[in-house]
Every structure is written in C-alpha cells, then in structure tokens.
Amino acid sequence: MKKANRSSKIINFKDFNAGYNAVSEREDNIIGKKIADFRAANKMSLTDLRILLEIYGISITNASISKWETGASVPNIYQFIAVMQALGIDENISFFTRAAAHLNPEGLRKLREYRDDLIATGKYRVVARHSYEEECIDMPISTLSVSAGTGTFLNEENFETISFPKSAVPDRADFGVRVCGDSMEPVYHDGQIAWIQECSELSPGEVGIFMYDGDGYIKMYDEQEPCEAERYDFTDSDGTLHMQSVLISYNKKYEPKLVSPLVRFSIVGRVLN
Predict the structure, then answer these.
(1) What is the mean pLDDT of each run of 10 residues along the chain (273 residues)?
(2) Angstrom distance (rounded) from CA 32 to CA 97
C-alpha cells in the first residue's frame, strides 16, 4: 500500500513572546484580585454578588466566592462569564491578566472610549442572529431568612419586592425566602433563595417552610406514629390517633426535629426549587 504523503510544519519557538504564564498568574491570584477589586468598586457584599450570580444561573455560597477572591480556588468558565456579567465587566479576557496592569486607569478609559467609537460606527460590531430581552417579574422576598439550622423568626409582613428574570422563578411560586444555615446542604445552600408555593398541607418527603414555636424553618416534611408516652396528646376527642410531624434535615449532622402537639406549629408553604 502506498503511504500517504504527510507534511509537517517546523515551529520556531523563538517567534513566540511568552508574555502569559498560567502558573505564575495563578500563584499571584491575578483573577481573584480583579474580581475582589471590581466587587469593592461596585460596593457589593459577598451576598449581593451571590444573589446576582443566581440570576445568571450560578448557585454558589458566599464562602466559595471568597475562595475565588483569595485564590484558594478558581471559577470554571461558565461561572467566570457570569461573574463578568454580574459585576458589569465589559473588557476582553486580557483584562484578567498581569499584562493589563501595563495600562493605568486612564489608559483603560481611553481604550474603552476607542472601542465604543468603533462599535458606534456599526462597521465593527458583531450582530447577533437572535436577540431578545427576557421578561422580568417582581416577586416578594422575605427580608428575614428561614433557618436551615437553628431557627429564625419569619414575619409575613417583612417582605421586599425584587425583580427577577421570569425564567428563574417557578410558575407556582408565591414568594421567596433566603435560606440561613447548612442543615439542608447539599441541596439548599446558605443565602440561596427558595421559591415557595403557599399551602397548609404537605405529603411526607416534600420540602417546605414551617413555623414552629415562633421560628421559621426549611426542612423536609415527614410523619411518624407518636411514642407511647405522647399518644394521649395526639389523640383527639373522638379517639382518633394522629401522626406526629417530623422535620428532617438533609445534612446528617442535624437530628430530626419532632413537632410537639403542645407547641404552635404550621405549614407555610411548599418549596418549589
């Protein structure tokens, strides 16, 4: 069989100007420092940035963002793009390299002005094939968190209205609450917004929002037959024995919370996300 002709190209490595080194950039935490600087410039807390990232489809904890900024970890490419959108960073990727430091703030401003001038001419702008503006809706969000740990008071009057992309809110959601604590990890994270459908009954296995002894909780609902010592308290005047409600944490380091019939308890709603 006749061998196919193969051609190869000799690369002269002297032609390359290696101005970027991933190892040294990572060691000096160039990307993390840029994120931290832009967050500070926008006067955002870690929680503010985390909530914005949720709108862009990134569910993450404050601690994880802090690790990005300190260099303990790095965002993946999708998280990185969402960070740029959330922080309003409208620069090319070279801005997140050490080389960007060659331009002072005035130089960066002039570069941005030149770019804007080019875009304004219409000759150098990339035209998207499909563009649309997503509809946003205003949703009531509790100003007090529901606890995934120790219990935080949930007052129905304490709500603020926040605008969200319609696709980010489940159709049946009536309001949202922020999770506080870690007992519903790894499904529900500290600071995450949980969307709630108001209801007064849940089936075992459903996650809900509950009021118990004046505190608000997000837990999985379950039922069990009461122990012998408490059977009297769960028996009504007709002699019917009722099941005891149990609030379950996903995080196994938290024990199930048994609901006492002598303490005020109510189901606020069903968690949809």
Answers:
(1) 50 55 86 87 86 88 90 89 82 69 61 68 60 76 72 65 86 90 87 90 94 89 89 85 92 92 91 89
(2) 11
